[in-house]
């Protein structure tokens, strides 16, 4: 089976993650959608690394993992800070800023 | 080449649990589904000749990142309800169509291209990756080190709460409680007279009446409390041995 199928799988996972970010109001769920999108891109990178027979794709995927870990730490800290200030993690609450 | 059976198993345990992101109600279930997706992706990496990345995926994602998510869920409370009001009209359909369109677009492009697959597979063993990381990509490694330190400090700064007022002593807390007329002592523990699952049975005050406030708020939110009819019935039962005392108290509050 051609490894390009894994790229198709990655595209499907990316779309599901994007749908979660667009549809869900819970900040944590939307954030998990972002994680899924990052992982889908990782899968595509590793699949391309296999297709081309080069190791660089795997190194890129490793870097994406590191950046994703840093992003999770800061993002969850922001969610906690917002929850402390507003007692909610709904993404629509900041819409009150419209006045 | 990849084993087709393995591919379909990986596809099933990544796509099906990830749909929980869209349809599941409880956030903890979603987090656990995403853990399963991460394990499936680790299997995919190993299949594609990246064993090191597969192990890192399990350690970093299922071990650290998703557990951090569950930890934050614990902090903000699992009983956070999602409000379904739409701030932008038809937002749900616009979002769904956009995501479906994105998926269809990507899949149609990927199925149209044909890339010749390299005959020999890559070796993603740790020593190969290590030589790559510390030779060609050593600068990126160092920049990522800075990034991780910055992220750690950023998380500390964001979650740190500076003390604006001096710390209140126990005496001041007690005086404030008395001034607003609240109960001056702690709430009583539930289930002093345990009949079955003691936590959902209210404590009784000296007159034998149940103290509603002794039941945990969480149990009420999950509808796991007792209605109390059966307990009232036994309390008001005149054939009980100490019913003379009960009768005098229950007449006073008109039951």
Automatic annotation (TrEMBL), chain A:
Record NCBIfam families: PRK05715.1-2 (NF004320), PRK05715.1-3 (NF004321)
UniProt xrefs under HAMAP family: NDH1_NuoK (MF_01456)
Keyword terms: Cell membrane, Membrane, NAD, Quinone, Translocase, Transmembrane, Transmembrane helix, Transport
Catalyzed reactions per annotation: a quinone + NADH + 5 H(+)(in) = a quinol + NAD(+) + 4 H(+)(out)
Record keyword Metal-binding present: no
Species, as recorded: Demequina sediminis
InterPro entries: NADH_UbQ_OxRdtase_chain4L/K, NUOK/Mnh_C1-like
EC number: 7.1.1.-
Function: NDH-1 shuttles electrons from NADH, via FMN and iron-sulfur (Fe-S) centers, to quinones in the respiratory chain. The immediate electron acceptor for the enzyme in this species is believed to be a menaquinone. Couples the redox reaction to proton translocation (for every two electrons transferred, four hydrogen ions are translocated across the cytoplasmic membrane), and thus conserves the redox energy in a proton gradient.
Annotated protein name in UniProt: NADH-quinone oxidoreductase subunit K
Subunit organization: NDH-1 is composed of 14 different subunits. Subunits NuoA, H, J, K, L, M, N constitute the membrane sector of the complex.
Leading EC class: translocase
Membrane spanning stretches: 6-23, 28-48, 60-83
Membrane topology: Multi-pass membrane protein
Family: Belongs to the complex I subunit 4L family.
UniProt subcellular location: Cell membrane; Membrane
UniProtKB/TrEMBL annotation, chain B:
Membrane found in the keyword field: yes
Tree of life domain: Bacteria
Biased amino acid composition, Basic and acidic residues: 234-255
Enzyme Commission designation: 7.1.1.-
Region described as Disordered: spans on this chain: 222-255
Keywords: Cell membrane, Membrane, NAD, Quinone, Transmembrane, Transmembrane helix
Residues spanning the membrane: 6-24, 29-48, 54-76, 96-117, 137-158
Recorded catalytic activity of this chain's protein: a quinone + NADH + 5 H(+)(in) = a quinol + NAD(+) + 4 H(+)(out)
Family matches, as Pfam families: Oxidored_q3 (PF00499)
Mode of membrane association: Multi-pass membrane protein
Subcellular location: Cell membrane
NCBIfam families for this protein: PRK06638.1-5
Recorded family membership: Belongs to the complex I subunit 6 family.
Known role: NDH-1 shuttles electrons from NADH, via FMN and iron-sulfur (Fe-S) centers, to quinones in the respiratory chain. Couples the redox reaction to proton translocation (for every two electrons transferred, four hydrogen ions are translocated across the cytoplasmic membrane), and thus conserves the redox energy in a proton gradient.
Entry protein name: NADH-quinone oxidoreductase subunit J
Organism: Demequina sediminis
Lineage of the species this protein comes from: Bacteria, Bacillati, Actinomycetota, Actinomycetes, Micrococcales
């Amino acid at each position: 089976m051609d490894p390009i199928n894994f790229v198709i799988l990655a595209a499907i996972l990316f779309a599901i993650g994007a749908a979660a970010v667009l549809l869900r109001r819970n900040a944590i769920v939307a954030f998990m959608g972002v994680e899924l999108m990052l992982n889908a891109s990782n899968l595509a990178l590793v699949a391309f690394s296999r297709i081309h027979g080069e190791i660089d794709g795997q190194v890129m995927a490793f870097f994406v993992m590191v950046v994703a870990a840093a992003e999770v730490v800061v993002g969850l800290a922001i969610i906690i800070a917002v929850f402390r200030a507003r007692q909610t993690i709904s993404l629509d609450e900041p819409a009150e800023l419209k006045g | 080449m990849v084993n087709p059976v393995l591919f379909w198993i990986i596809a099933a345990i990544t796509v099906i649990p990830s749909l929980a992101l869209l349809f599941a109600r409880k956030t903890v279930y979603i987090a656990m589904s995403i853990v399963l997706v991460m394990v499936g992706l680790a299997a995919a990496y190993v299949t594609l000749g990246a064993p090191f990345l597969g192990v890192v995926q399990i350690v970093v994602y299922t071990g650290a990142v998703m557990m951090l998510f569950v930890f934050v869920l614990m902090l903000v409370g699992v009983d956070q309800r999602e409000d379904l009001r739409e701030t932008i009209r038809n937002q749900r359909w616009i979002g769904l169509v956009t995501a479906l369109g994105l998926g269809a677009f990507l899949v149609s492009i990927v199925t149209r291209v044909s890339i010749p697959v390299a005959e020999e597979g890559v070796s993603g063993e740790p020593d190969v990756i290590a030589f790559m990381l510390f030779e060609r990509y050593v600068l990126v490694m160092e920049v990522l080190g800075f990034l991780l330190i910055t992220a750690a400090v950023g998380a500390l700064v964001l979650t740190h709460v500076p003390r604006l007022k001096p710390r209140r002593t126990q005496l001041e807390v007690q005086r404030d409680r008395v001034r607003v007329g609240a109960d001056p002592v702690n709430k009583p523990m539930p289930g002093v007279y345990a009949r079955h699952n003691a936590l959902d049975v209210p404590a009784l005050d000296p007159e034998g009446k149940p103290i509603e406030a002794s039941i945990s708020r969480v149990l009420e939110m999950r509808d796991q409390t007792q209605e109390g009819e059966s307990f009232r019935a036994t309390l008001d039962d005149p054939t009980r041995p100490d019913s003379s005392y009960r009768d005098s108290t229950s007449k006073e509050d008109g039951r």
